[in-house]
Design a protein that fits this description.
single chain; mainly alpha
């Protein structure tokens, strides 16, 4: 194997590791939020506000100290800055907010199933808008991952009340918005670098979230100390670290493969619920987890 091929393999392996690791850390968010809700009565927007308020200083510092190391990266024009800000607001703020709204009308299990239609959206949007070919292995991996997710949530309560379609539509919109973030990240990080892209996008999302907190009449001051602890954990381990990991992973392996690998997220949530919260995990759900892992392995072994 030539030195160039070996280096390419190492970069792809690093991209796979970062994407999978970031997806697992993102999946921890649901567990931390459940624990916070068990211990405190707090509106969702306040918890989201704490998450982004603690994240914002990290985004600013990392962007300032690391984002300036451009190397071969292009300099940003005002239109590029505006585009990245728009992607950040759509993919992190609006996608999260529509997901929260949809959860008012859907069960958690159904919400996860609808939300993880986004890998297919990434594939189709890339093909339709940019002409990126879809490999046969990507279709097979996507199908296997979806089958695994369906089995993993087969024991969930899908009763949604009389506004099912409203909830499903909001969560579907959330998936669409996040797919736009994945595609934008995949196309812009090779030009501007993953650190600069992530920092700028998430600073913009943080500012909008904090503005929403203020406009909704809530406050992040005078809260119980334990709630600030949950907010700090959400910020560092469920936002900042995975945010940079996933963006760099997308840069290394591409938006299509990264979207499919993200299917490990909901399965990781189920496993963590079993390990941390002691929730029931049956054999069918375990089989679903195995199928998702198999789909991920297919992508990992493809070239």
């Amino acid at each position: 194997m030539s030195t160039v091929s070996r280096t390419s393999e190492q970069l792809r392996s690093l991209g796979l590791f970062l994407t999978l690791g970031g997806a697992v850390l993102f999946s921890c968010k649901a567990i931390v939020i459940k624990l916070a809700y068990q211990d405190f009565s707090v509106p969702s927007i306040v918890l989201l506000g704490l998450r982004m308020a603690f994240s914002l200083p990290f985004f600013l510092l990392i962007g300032y100290f690391r984002g300036g190391r451009r190397g071969e990266q292009e300099s940003m024009q005002p239109k590029d800055v505006l585009l990245i800000i728009t992607i950040g607001v759509l993919g992190y703020y609006l996608a999260s907010y529509t997901d929260f709204l949809g959860l008012q009308h859907l069960s958690a299990g159904m919400e996860r199933l609808v939300l993880f239609t986004y890998p297919t959206m990434v594939l189709l949007l890339q093909r339709t808008v940019f002409g990126v070919p879809i490999k046969k292995i990507q279709w097979w991996a996507t199908l296997i991952c979806y089958l695994g997710i369906g089995l993993a949530f087969s024991g969930s309560d899908f009763y949604a009340g009389n506004r099912f379609w409203l909830g499903a539509g909001l969560v579907f919109l959330s998936a669409f918005l996040y797919s736009m973030y994945v595609i934008g990240s995949g196309r812009l990080t090779p030009r501007f670098g993953s650190v600069r892209f992530t920092s700028l996008a998430l600073v913009a999302a943080s500012v909008v979230v904090l503005s929403h907190v203020v406009l909704s009449g809530n406050s992040l001051l005078g809260l119980p100390p334990g709630l600030y602890g949950y907010g700090l954990v959400l910020a560092i381990f469920c936002t900042v670290i995975p945010g940079y990991m996933v963006t760099e992973g997308i840069r290394l392996i591409g938006a299509n493969d990264a979207a499919i690998l993200g299917a490990v997220g909901p399965v990781a949530t189920i496993v963590l619920e079993f390990l941390v919260l002691g929730e029931y995990l049956n054999l069918v759900q375990a089989l679903g987890a195995v199928l998702v892992i198999f789909g991920v392995v297919l992508i990992g072994r493809s070239r």
